[in-house]
Amino acid sequence: MITIASWNVRGLNSVAHHAVRQFVREKGVQFLGLLETRVRRGNILSVRAGLLPSWSWFDDYTGPGGRIWLAWDEAEVGVEVLMGGQFIHCRLLNKRTLTTYLTSVVYGECDPIRRRLLWGELLQISGAIVDVPWCVLGDFNIVLDASESCGRVAEVTHAMDEFKAFISDAVLVHLPFTGCPYSWHNCSEGSRSLWRCLDRVLVNDAWLDIWPHSSYLSSLPQTSDHSPLVLLHYRKKGFLLPNFLLLWKTRSKRSFSLRNIFPSNKFKQNDVVYFFCYDFILLLKESYDIKN
């Protein structure tokens, strides 16, 4: 399987350049979707020459600042772009195995009304796909429910229900993942700190028929406020976070403050490890109480 990745980089300055190159090298990425590049049209060639100079590129400038860029290693991957909008849909060819599959790199609008156009267009694609592996990944700019937000109480909205309905109607499923359970942080501290799961990977049944052990890695946000995602053709041994999050949803109360448990300054309240450890401790305690 081609190593596919996406990252909302929130701009491509020199620091982001280094981070992207390092990410591609360390993860062995062969096809990359970059979101919100904030690069002006006149600077496209110079930016790409300094980023991944030997790769092929495609971009979407229907919105300001280059909403979606695609980059791929032409020696390994063949790409046929089929359509775009709030996403770029393309057919990928693995030149080593000659297998083909479909990939849609998504950058959803913040406006829920405009996101309905995204759901509708992706539903049209799903209806036209027959037994072809399909992967949909990127920044959807919406969470599924309140459990995918951390830092303050999030109310269930109609937009969340529409997102759930789209996933169900398109017959897509969430891949299990390892790494950071929340893919976006507002870069604030204390009571203003907010984490959300805005970035994800969805696949259809035909994908799982071929790669039943697929998963993806959600790394901690680095130069951007979003986590980079990389698709894996195998399922990592260890803890798969969706199963863990399902257990979170069964609890009536959740707390993300560790000040009463860990008064030490070793943990920062806006650190993902900070609140993740607390929920993990609660889960272990509940398991112990049940057994004893």
Describe what you observe in this structure.
The chain is α+β, with helices and mostly antiparallel strands and 292 residues long. It has 2 domains: 4-244, Endonuclease/exonuclease/phosphatase (Deoxyribonuclease I, Chain A), CATH 3.60.10; 251-292. Helix content is 29%, strand content 26%. The protein is built from 7 helices and 16 strands. It has helices at 14-27, 44-51, 112-128, 158-169, 205-210, 241-249, 272-291; strands at 4-8, 31-35, 56-60, 68-72, 77-84, 87-94, 100-107, 134-139, 149-150, 172-174, 177-179, 184-185, 195-196, 199-204, 215-218, 229-232. The strands form 3 sheets. Strands 3-4-2-1-16-15-11 form a 7-stranded mixed sheet, with no helix packed on it. Strands 5-6-7-8-14-10 form a 6-stranded mixed sheet. A hairpin with a 2-residue loop joins strand 5 (77-84) and strand 6. The protein is globular and about 45 Å long. Mean pLDDT is 80; it is low at 236-276 and 278-292. It comes from Sesamum radiatum. GO terms for molecular function: catalytic activity. This is Endonuclease/exonuclease/phosphatase domain-containing protein.
